[in-house]
Fold this protein.
Amino acid sequence: MAKDKVILAYSGGLDTTVIIPWLKENYDYDVIAVCIDVGQGDDWESIKARALKTGASACYVVDARQEYIEEYIWPALKANAVYEDEYLLGTSTARPLIGKILVEYARQEGAVAICHGATGKGNDQVRFELAIKAFAPDLRVIAAWRDDKWNMDSRDAEIKFLEDRGLEVPMKKDQSYSRDENIWHISHEGLELEKTSNEPNYKHMLKNTTVPEESGDGEYVTIDWEKGIPVALNGKKMNGLELMEELNKIGGRNGVGLVDICENRCVGMKSRGVYETPGGAILYFAHRMMDHICLDRDTYHYKQQVSLRLAELIYDGKVFTPLYDALMAFVDKTQETVTGWTKVKLVKGQIRAAGSDSKYSLYNEDIASFTTGDLYNHKDAQGFITLFGLPLKVRAMMEQKVGEGRAIAESKNLKKRPTE
């Protein structure tokens, strides 16, 4: 009789490598490993071989980089979605896609369960499982670190588990930072970052970014946009993957996109991480420049509110929800005229605006110029200010009337200024 199948989200790292024999021993499942490439830059052939050698009956490697960029990164970019002012949602945007693909392979293989190696303290367990629930509420989810049969509480214990079975250990004991990497970013947690009083050891930590003070003299970058999506870099048309790979190199050598943040996880605790998002930081900055010239005041200000809510939804893994779809429909509407070009200068970790233009630009030089022109009469401002300030004037008149002699200076908290 054939065994039941379980789909394992397999990264090739220590946790998921341990999970393969652990699943076979504790659940007697036929383990199907699924590796999802969202731009980690891993050696997938060796990772696939490791999965099979460790006990998986099959291992699939899925190239989801282009889908990740077009269906998850670009929407967040168009929305200017930033979590808690700084985090550009690198891990957050990838997890829902991974969960969706796991379900696709579970259906293809006729699996009864999906397993992941996310810890019980992190956000990823939430993101994976919300995606699975959205597409396959009937499938069982096995979260190894929360499972009663899981009796390992450290990396040393996991290493011993593999060594006791004569299996390859996919990491060295001195590999220390906890990292997540994809085409959009790389995150770092652990070691000195676990104390907020410590400065990050950037020289030891960074993988894709030059320490800003050691970067070069800077360079200019020009990006072409169509409906809020970047389509060309420095005059050369590129698809999303090509553009991201090149921008990461440019941003990395100029030290841009570094964030050190103590953020609020959706599970209730704070965690500190350092994020490298060199290409993403350039795109977010340049996209805001386009929004600034193409969106009217009311739309831009309301979009700021939508951006905040979308960032929370993405961070919490609530991408496959009606609210996310509704808010993204608003964002897509705002981006219909966000077409043109932006130019930025990268200098020692900083990004500076260096010009922008669009045929849909709402900036009108004839109106904005200090020189009086036919389109704007300075005297028109008098009537506007009278009406705009009318509520203030009416309230002040009322306070004067009911104050019964109380000094205006006292009622308005006005201070007497020294005279010469």
User: Anything to note?
Assistant: The chain has three domains: 5-65+90-175, 179-295+338-363, 371-411. The CA atoms of residues 54 and 166 lie 10 Å apart. The chain is about 45% helix and 20% strand. The chain has a mean pLDDT of 93.
